[in-house]
TrEMBL record:
It comes from the Eukaryota. InterPro entries: GT18_cat (IPR026116). This is Glycosyltransferase family 18 catalytic domain-containing protein. The lineage of its organism: Eukaryota, Fungi, Dikarya, Basidiomycota, Agaricomycotina. Residues 1-22 form the signal peptide. GO terms for molecular function: alpha-1,6-mannosylglycoprotein 6-beta-N-acetylglucosaminyltransferase activity. Keywords: Signal. Residues 315-439 form the Glycosyltransferase family 18 catalytic domain. It comes from Kwoniella pini CBS 10737.
Length: 463
């Protein structure tokens, strides 16, 4: 099933992958950096000696402090690029251009927005800049994208858009086609950002054009249908002090920014509101304080609320609106972070783990005949369900005993160090970003297109 949508060359590379293991990861792009690859030409390259070469240096990625809008940022990058091309002294990768034209990018980079997609965009931006690429950013619409594409049509390697893009791609007069030879080629312009690894392609393009921020499966980053890029908290994690659990107060953190999350259906709200008060009467939990930081706003997700009025949780101290520093301090001083069912695939549990704080991950549904089959679990954090204590406690929704046991175990068997998911280091994100930019997408698109045409598909756009 999963190979149906991959080109033949991709399938071959993927199967070679499994036994050549990590050596085959190494491919050298013209600039000498190691690139992961899905295309077969990886295996033509003699990498044995090259792998001993020192890694090329990373460029600094931060933007000038006085920049207040993305136009100013772009103007400066364009000037730098034109000047270096003129003077023939561009640094490594500078002449390769990435257009990141989706609202998230200016919001994250210029306005400092750090929601899930913002965290992800920042990680990709950092990796691209560290590798030396010229990254231009903008909004999701076509005009601005097209104007920037026209400046450097051959140098633009990939164009990243949000999952919601307008109809230009459906229009042969807009995209590159037989009737519009100078339109933007779809294989270049259609990398769409989907935070969640959900499967949906657009007509006539492979799943690899969907890039995503997190996973449902463990160890399938390279073999999955879609393209995992991910984000990294490595810096934040390294800067954090690990506080041994016996020095922490008897305190647990409830993950929720909105009280509405305690008032959804019994599927979406994993634990009865009474659990927090009741748990305080259990052995070893008499001193436990439950804390959280959430808003009480009955308008939030109004249509989903099952029991009104939306109110604070009894037995939980609400710190209200807190900043990232306080949040981080609270996590480092908690015994466990408790999920209530939503938000799904939130970045916050990774921050808890890298403070050495375990996460209680509610399992919202499971196969009743094989309740231990994790592949069938739908959990709040569907990637972390693959981890076990002392880092992650997977607890079935509405299982009060399991809920209490997890908290008790987090006290008796706490983590003794921080945890960073290996695919989420800065270096791993950088490698995947480099592959995104360096892969020969045109040839992958061509293979895919030919397969589809052989199956009877018609294409209104050209490569
Ligand atoms: C080709 O597409 C671009 C937009 O992508 C548009 O500006 C241009 O007018 C189109 N040309 C033709 C001949 O349709
Ligand atoms: C939660 O527990 C209380 C008290 O045990 C009970 O009355 C209530 O119906 C439960 N709520 C849900 C949604 O199960």
């Amino acid at each position: 099933m999963s190979s149906r949508h991959l080109s033949r060359s991709t399938i071959i590379s993927l199967s070679i992958f499994s036994f050549l293991a990590c050596i085959t990861f190494l491919k050298f792009s013209p600039n000498g950096e190691n690139v992961l690859s899905w295309t077969t030409d990886t295996f033509d390259i003699d990498f044995t000696l090259d792998t001993l070469k020192p890694k090329p240096k990373l460029f600094s990625w931060e933007i000038d402090e006085d920049i207040k809008d993305h136009h100013t940022y772009n103007e400066r990058e364009i000037t730098k690029l034109r000047t270096c091309m003129n003077d023939n002294n561009c640094h490594r990768n500078q002449e390769k251009v990435v257009l990141a034209f989706a609202h998230t990018w200016p919001q994250a980079i210029i306005d400092g927005w750090r929601g899930g997609e913002g965290v992800w965009a920042m990680s990709m931006f950092r990796a691209m800049r560290e590798l030396g690429y010229t990254v231009l950013i903008g909004m999701n619409g076509w005009e601005e994208t097209l104007a920037h594409y026209r400046m450097f049509p051959d140098q633009v390697k990939v164009i990243i858009k949000s999952a919601w893009i307008d109809d230009c791609i459906k229009n042969p007069a807009c995209i590159k086609s037989d009737i519009n030879l100078t339109g933007i080629p779809r294989w270049k312009c259609e990398f769409s950002m989907n935070f969640f690894p959900d499967e949906h392609t657009r007509f006539g393009l492979d799943y690899k054009w969907i890039i995503h921020a997190d996973r449902h499966f463990k160890g399938q980053e390279e073999t999955e249908k879609l393209q995992y890029i991910g984000y990294s908290f490595e810096d934040e994690c390294k800067n954090r002090e690990f506080i041994p659990h016996k020095k922490r107060p008897m305190s647990s953190w409830i993950l929720a920014k909105q009280a509405t999350l305690f008032h959804l259906s019994t599927v979406e709200t994993a634990f009865n509101k009474s659990y927090f008060e009741l748990a305080g009467q259990e052995t070893g939990l008499e001193e436990m304080t439950f804390k959280g930081a959430y808003q009480v706003n009955g308008e939030y997700m109004k249509g989903w609320i099952h029991d009104s009025p939306v109110e604070s949780l009894r037995g939980v101290i609400n710190l209200g609106k807190i900043g990232p520093e306080r949040f981080s301090e609270e996590l480092s001083n908690s015994r466990i972070m408790i999920g209530v069912g939503n938000p799904t695939l939130s970045p916050s549990p990774y921050l808890a783990l890298c403070s050495g704080t375990p996460f209680l991950n509610p399992i919202k549904s499971w196969d009743s005949e094989n309740p231990n089959d994790r592949s069938k679990w739908v959990s709040q954090h569907n990637y972390l369900k693959w981890l076990d204590p002392p880092y992650v406690y997977n607890v079935q929704a509405h299982d009060y005993e399991g809920f209490v046991n997890a908290i008790q175990s987090s006290i008796s068997h706490p983590p003794t160090k921080k945890y960073i998911d290996p695919p989420m280091t800065l270096n791993e994100v950088r490698k995947r970003v480099e592959r995104l930019v360096e892969t020969d997408w045109k040839s992958i698109a061509k293979d895919y297109m030919q397969e589809k045409i052989a199956e009877g598909a018609t294409y209104t756009w050209t490569l």
